[in-house]
Amino acid sequence: MQYDHILIRYGEIALKGKNQKKFLVKLQENIRHKLKEFPDVTVKRTQGRMFVILNGQDPHAVIEKCKHIFGIHSFSLAIKVENNLDKIKHAALFALQNGKDVKTFKITVKRINKNFDVRSQEMNQILGGHLLTNTQDYKVDVHHPDLEIKVEIRSEATYITSGVVKGLGGLPVGTSGKSLLLLSGGIDSPVAGYLAMKRGVEVEAIHFHSPPFTSERAKQKVIDLAEKLTRYGQKVKIHMVPFTKLQQRIFQETPDGYGMTVMRRMMLRISEQVCKNEGILSLTTGENLGQVASQTMESMNTINEVTNYPILRPLITMDKDEIIDISREIDTFDISIRPYEDCCTIFVPKAPKTKPKKDRVNYFEEKYDYQELIDEAVNGIEIVEISDEKQVKDDAFQDLF
Ligand code: ATP
Ligand code: MG
C-alpha cells in the first residue's frame, strides 16, 4: 500500500462565490504547470475538492513543488480505497504506521455516503480499535493528537487522509491581473514582487540600468532575482531600460538635492509607458515608508504626481527586519547583497531633498525637454524572458536530500 493522492485545500478561494470556478481553474492550471515534470501525475477537481493523483509518483517530491504554489492553504497525503470496511481498516493502519514522530492519534470519520451501512461514530470505534490492536506504541488522544487520520466515506470511494502540511496561502498567480514590478538589485523590490504574487498578481519586471557606470554583473543580479521569483509563477519578463543618457542629463539640468526626485519621476513615466504598451494596469515597488529620502510622505507625493496608475507598495508599513526575513525565505537575500552598484547609487547626490516641492520639481523639469530621451530609453528596452525551468530543477535537486 502507498499514498496515491494528495488532497489540496484552498482556503480563501472557497469564499469566492460565483467567481470560485475561475480561481480553481487557474489553481489547477498552476499546479499542473509546476508538476509537468511528472508525466504520470494528474490534477483533478471534484465537488469542492482538488486532488493530485500520484499514479505511483513519490508524494514527497510532489509536495515539495506544491509548497511554492500560491492559492493552496494546506495539503494532506491521501489514500483512496473502495467503500469496504477491510480496505478502510488496512489504509488507516498504513496511515498511522507511516506518520513521522507519532505517538498519539485520533480518527475522525465523516460519512457523506449514507448508503454505507456503518455509522460514523461506530466507524470511529471500529477503526480506533483496529489500530490499537494491531500496533503497540500508540495511544488515542482526541484533543491534541500528533496525527489526525480523517476518513471520508463518499459515494465513489473512501479517502483516508493523514496529517496536514501548510501551503503558502494567497491566491493563484494570474487571478489578479498583471503588474509591472520596478525591480532594482536591492533587498526590497524582489520581496515586494513576491508579495504581489501572493495576492494572485502576475508580474513583469522593469529595471533601469546605466552602463558603463553599472556593470554586467549588476544586470545579472537582477536576472538572478527575477529567476527566484519564477519559483512562485511561471515566467518573468524583464524590461531592461538603458537609462544612462537620461540620467546624466537629469543630473546636469537639476540642482543638487532634486536630481533624485526627477530621476524617480522619469522612472515612473517610462514604467507607465511600458504598462501602456503591454496592457498592464498597475506598478509595484519596494518602497517602504520612512526608509530613505525618496520614501518620505512628501517625496512619495511629489514623485507619484506623474502617474495615475495604481502603485502597489506591499512593503510600505513593514520593518526592515521583517522584509529581510522574507527575502531569506524566498532565497533572494544573498543575491541582493552582492556588492554591485545600481544606477541610483551612482548618480544620487550626497543629500537628496527629503521634502521635495512639486512646483520646484516641475520648474526644473520644464528647463529641458526630456521627451526625446524618454522615447530613446523606451525604444532601447531590451527584453529578457526568464522561465521557471531552473527553479524547478533546483527544487528537484533539493528533494534528494
Ligand atoms: P530596493 O531594496 O528595492 O532597491 P531601496 O530600499 O533601495 O529598495 P530605493 O532605492 O529608494 O529603495 O528604491 C525604491 C524602489 O524604487 C525600489 O524598491 C524599486 O521598486 C524602485 N527602483 C529603484 N531603483 C530601481 C532600478 N534601478 N530599476 C527599477 N526599479 C528601481
Ligand atoms: Mg535600492
From TrEMBL:
Biological role: Catalyzes the ATP-dependent transfer of a sulfur to tRNA to produce 4-thiouridine in position 8 of tRNAs, which functions as a near-UV photosensor. Also catalyzes the transfer of sulfur to the sulfur carrier protein ThiS, forming ThiS-thiocarboxylate. This is a step in the synthesis of thiazole, in the thiamine biosynthesis pathway. The sulfur is donated as persulfide by IscS.
SMART domains in alphabetical order: THUMP (SM00981)
Alphabetical UniProt keywords: ATP-binding, Cytoplasm, Nucleotide-binding, RNA-binding, Thiamine biosynthesis, Transferase, tRNA-binding
PANTHER family on file: TRNA SULFURTRANSFERASE
Catalytic activity: [ThiS sulfur-carrier protein]-C-terminal Gly-Gly-AMP + S-sulfanyl-L-cysteinyl-[cysteine desulfurase] + AH2 = [ThiS sulfur-carrier protein]-C-terminal-Gly-aminoethanethioate + L-cysteinyl-[cysteine desulfurase] + A + AMP + 2 H(+); [ThiI sulfur-carrier protein]-S-sulfanyl-L-cysteine + a uridine in tRNA + 2 reduced [2Fe-2S]-[ferredoxin] + ATP + H(+) = [ThiI sulfur-carrier protein]-L-cysteine + a 4-thiouridine in tRNA + 2 oxidized [2Fe-2S]-[ferredoxin] + AMP + diphosphate
Gene Ontology MF, one: tRNA-uracil-4 sulfurtransferase activity
Single biological process term from Gene Ontology: tRNA 4-thiouridine biosynthesis
Main location: cytoplasm
Key word Cell cycle present: no
A Pfam family this chain is assigned to: THUMP
GO CC entries: cytosol
Pathway: Cofactor biosynthesis; thiamine diphosphate biosynthesis
Protein name: Probable tRNA sulfurtransferase
Localization: Cytoplasm
Enzyme Commission code: 2.8.1.4
